[in-house]
Amino acid sequence: MKILVKIILLLFILAAPAQAVEVLVLPVDLTNTKENYYSFDEVSEIVSNDIIKEFNRSNGKVTSPQLPEIRVKINNNSALKQDIENSLNLYKNKNSIDYESFKKVCQNFSCNKILLVSASAVNNKNSIKRSIWEVLEISTAFDVSYPFRLETSVVLIDTENDIVMWSNNYSLKLSNNNNTFSAKNYAQANAELEKIKLYSKTAVAPSASQNIILRFYPKSIRPIQQEIKETTGGALRFDKNIPEKPKLRPREDFYGDTLFGI
């Protein structure tokens, strides 16, 4: 009888679902006031929302609080809001991670994993990083006709061990075949917004979420058979610092590694 009980208990343990991993997704523009002319979300927030949706569709493997829920919590805690603002600004402006500060943030959300999401528009002529909507407004005023690239960076950090668990960079050229890029009215700007949403929903979010789930559940991911010609920082690695962005050959559209599929 005792043996039977042990066998049943063992089967129950093996059949029980693994505890979900909680990942706090933080776009670098989380605490910024929306001041762009069109009142559209910043790209980092668009991408973050799509990644959160992918996590919460992972059959309980990875969960993540929604951005409105995060905002409510930090707006009711001035010290927490200041910690997040300082940490995100340091990462956004200097590409540096303040692990101690992020550790305090995680304590308020009962987790130890944070996903940092940033995005900027860069012109190959001067490499100056700008907000995508700042570029749109510049193009409206001065009829800018040279292409920008939308660079999106995603970094998963472990605040318990102070390491970067995974990171990747994604890129998309922002112009048409004639190298024109302008949005002189709301309709044109909204058309650009739809392109960005598609880029986030179909390229960045699926790739990032699948690679992150792989870190926690390697046996639940089936590799996609494809030839990888370039590395983009998405290789399996653990490091304290953010890996340097690779020097890639200019391409029409590059979405980063999509190495794994569920």
Structure description:
The protein is built from seven helices and nine strands, in the order H-E-H-E-H-H-H-E-E-H-E-E-H-E-E-E. The strands form two sheets. Strands 1, 2, 3, 4, 5, 6 and 8 form a seven-stranded mixed β-sheet that branches. Strands 7-9 form a two-stranded antiparallel ribbon. Helix 2 packs across helix 7 (186-216) and helix 4 packs across helix 5 (99-109). It is an alpha+beta fold. A hairpin with a 5-residue loop joins strand 3 (113-123) and strand 4 (129-130). It starts with a helix and ends with a strand. The model is unreliable at 9-17, 223-240 and 246-262 (pLDDT under 50).
Spans of at least 5 consecutive residues whose pLDDT stays below 50 are 9-17, 223-240, 246-262
Number of domains: 1
Number of helices: 7
**What is the third-level CATH name, the topology?**
Double Stranded RNA Binding Domain
The CATH class is identified as Alpha Beta
Q: Tell me which CATH architecture applies here.
A: 2-Layer Sandwich
Structural class: alpha+beta
Rounded to an integer in angstroms, the radius of gyration calculated over CA atoms is 20 Å
In quaternary terms, these chains amount to single chain
Helix content: 40-55%
Order of helices and strands: HEHEHHHEEHEEHEEE
Mean pLDDT: 77
Straight-line distance between termini = 41 Å
Strand content: 15-25%
Main beta sheet strand tally, sense and closure: 7 strands, mixed
- Tally of extended strands? 9
Characterize the overall form.
globular
